[in-house]
Amino acid sequence: MSTALVLGGGGVTGIAWELGVLQALQEAGVDLTAADLVVGTSAGSVVAVQATSGVGLHPLVAEQLRPPSTSREVKADFDPQAAAAAFTRLIEGARDEQEIRARIGAMALTAHTVPEAERMQTIQARLPVDAWPGRRLLITAVDAQTGDLVVWDRTSGIVLASAVAASCAVPGVWPPATVAGRRYIDGSVRSATNADLAMGHDVVVVLAPDTGPGLNPASKGLAGEVPLLRAHSQVRVITPDDAALEAIGPNPLDPGRRPASARAGQRQGRALAGTLREVWPAPAA
E strands within 153-272? Predict the structure, then answer.
């Protein structure tokens, strides 16, 4: 039985929530981090690297639970609804989804943000390792000029931190990341999850802090991806419940919300363990 774990975008609060879910499930005997394939988009790319690093989930969650005053994360003022409205105006009249992504990329290339080197320091501080894992890990981003989806893995010859920086480059908030001479933006500009990359696996579990279209109002997101997956796979989608949404708050880029988001994820993971145990392979003895 082949398994895939899809980790979607959702800002720093999404990182905390996903790690909380994964830790609680692992402690209950459902180790999603042992998946044959891990797909990471935006915040999910961070969690994907962390969860496959071999460091263990306990210290990773402990970092999320630290008092906000000790965090090295930088708060960004980000209103998802306002961003969606702005992007909707930006893409009016576009011919197709690729042109939409290229228009968003063009905006990102001219936006005033922190310097790219400063942003890279934040990304590197999140990652416990600098080498790609042995297991298959896919990290998504979008070419800021062409709008093409790019998917990197350990065979791509790309520095791991650079791939994550690109996948997390929220347009208009963080600078596009330079990778091999080209500029890239957040993988959520194509889809908040890019879950269709897990097609072909028997069991697919999706952790999706953002259940909408991601950073592209025209994207079908999970609504378009899950039916495709279910044609050949058992699929389970985990999204924040009402209590988790309250913990996460209105700004997913607010590191002050990380402790509450992680605890909400732990609670959800414990509640979902029984259901997921029915489809996820038990750990090897």
Answer: 177-179, 182-186, 203-207, 234-238
